[in-house]
Amino acid sequence: MGTNWMNGDHLHVRCMTYIINLFIQDSLKESFMSIERVRHAVRYVRQSPARLKRFQKSCDDEQLSYKKSFCLDIPTRWNSTYLMLSGAVEFKNAFTNYASREIVLRHYLENSYIEVGVTSSDLLSSDWVQVKRITKFLKFVYLLTLKISGSLYVTSNIHFLEICVVAVYLNQLIASEDTDLSNMERKMKEKFDKYWGSQVSAKGTGPLDSLIQDLQKSKALNRGVDSRTELDKYFGEETEDDTKEFKILLWWKMNATRFSTLSKMACDVLAVPVSSVAFESAFST
Predict the structure, then answer these.
(1) How far is CA 195 from CA 166, 188, 259, in A?
(2) For residues 204 and 213, what is the distance between their CA atoms, to the nearest angstrom?
(3) Per-residue pLDDT tens for 91-109?
(4) Helix, strand, coil % (nearest 5) of the chain?
(5) ∠ Cα 127 70 142 (to 5°)
(6) How would you class 1 by CB atoms within 10 Å of its CB: exposed for 0-12, middle for 13-18, buried for 19 or more?
(7) Which pTM value belongs to this model?
């Protein structure tokens, strides 16, 4: 206590992987029935070589290449659910063709239980709409999770842009004309805001305002020829070009003599891990 600015409150960051998993749990719940029907259909086709051969015939009829097969997921690993659904969506027409000639598949679905007392029933066009919708979102967070689960680059200086991309993407989905999608993403945005919401209050008394005031007081006590605060000087700097070669931590190291206080804060804040979850646990639900 007392050794960090604001008692270290600005260093407290929720695990981004955990927040993403909360997103996923919400989205999977919204499409639970449709996902289960697709899962049962995939399981049925993969249960025997003869079924796979007949399914391949349906792919040929629909002029679909069967070189890229589909997998059966592990329900507790959402990345495998995404890979299963994305594969199944590609073969949507083949599944429809196969179901039309495979009456046993329809019986299988009608007698498969999603949960106690609830049978699967046949795959509907609305199920494919739901699955396509959730697959689009899962693809986005799947690629994001791969980035934030790396062992050497999980700090906030690298992934600040990724966090902003998530916010923009969620806002785009909320504005979608698809009412169901918009409602689903609105719930996710609420969770996102808890992770990366604004830390400045409407009245200007938030943690960031307090930090700026402390900097100004510090400068007033040690006033030199230039009365501008260190923060004022920093804001007056020209912006750097956004290139792959630009390294934010290296920039602060090179400018540490000009911004002694801010550079120390940058090293503290930008080194905060964005995720505390091991890679093998990142996709667990």
Answers:
(1) 12, 11, 29
(2) 11
(3) 999 998 888 888 888 788 7
(4) 65, 5, 30
(5) 75
(6) exposed
(7) 0.68
